[in-house]
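FW: tagging you since you asked about this chain on Friday. Here's the raw sequence from the shared folder, copied in full. Didn't touch anything.
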Amino acid sequence: MKKIISLLLICLSCSFGEENGLKNYYVTQKEKNITVRQSYKTVNPRKTVGRKKWYEVDWNQGVKLCPEKDFNTGNGTWIVNGTSHVDSLNCVYVDGSPYTRSILVLFARDRNDLKDADSSWILINQTIIDLKGKNFIVYKGIGRIDDRYVKDTSYAVRMEYDLIVDKTELRVRDALWLRKGEKVNEKQSVLAFNSDYYPSSDSLEVLDYPSKYYQYYLSFRSKKDGLESVLNCPKLTQCSYNKSANGYRLPYYDEWYILQNAGQSKVFSWGNEFVEDSLKKYADIHCAKNVSGLYPVKRYAPNQYGLYDTYGNAYETYFVLYDDNDYLAVNPCSISGFKNPGKACRELLRYKCLRRNTIVNNATFKMPGFQGLRMVRKLE
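HL: got it, structure written out here
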């Protein structure tokens, strides 16, 4: 909460709305409206802990929040990290967003003491995965894929926290938005070096396709959502990792495996044996054969956690921490160096999306796939 409060205190220099004799209304205008104003609806919280609430909505869905008994009652000030307005009944209308992100809404009785404010997080194309206190089985390969003694192993994991997870892989649309106003390495543009994966080199025609992995997107979105970045980058080529930060990051391996399998203690979410008919529900099983590149997110069904493309589309990366400051982004299904990626990945490699017009041969499946990302953060 410390980092969030410091962000909102900066916003207190913004202009205040009018008083109606009963309430003080305060709404920040951090960005201009970029979409047609949509309808607003009252939604039930996905999770409530004390005076904190989390709501889950889809892209472009506006949310209406009103004072509630025993929650945000009494005279107070609405503080919103986004575009919104307030009506005469002191209900706040928070505009939807076409981008995957979290919007924080505070109801403060004392603008000088935000620690006592009621908080509501609006999660746009994000979902809460309840993991805390639960045990899971994680599978992993041992040895080298060209070793006659290659085998798989499993181990038990107990999770000590819940996660907020993007329902989809980061899209080109999101990446273009995150880059606005930020210092970036232009050589690592959204489509650079990977245009063969898209049906068009015009980014406006592939807005809903997965974006290329670029580690600074984690920091850019954390900044927009008022969170502390896990990456400390005094220079674009020099970053250290802040494990205690509350901002967005890549999942760690155990988390990634649990998310992919929707918490099922099996090799795949449907069982321990590979079944192509089961896979085609979640991914394009012809992606490799047709060498057609990537496809838009949400084209296939989500898994039991509500997450899309965990078995297909872009390769998702995860973080490996060497100590408190050093990290590496790794592809869990990579077979570079002929390392054993585990049974699930060995099966899925045959279906991975390849560059358009690639000549398919036995060596093709040793080529790296398109590296995308799915952001997560701890639920606080």
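FW: Helices lie at 2-11, 172-179, 216-224, 253-260, 276-279, 343-348.
HL: agreed, and The longest strand covers residues 101-108.
FW: great, closing this out.
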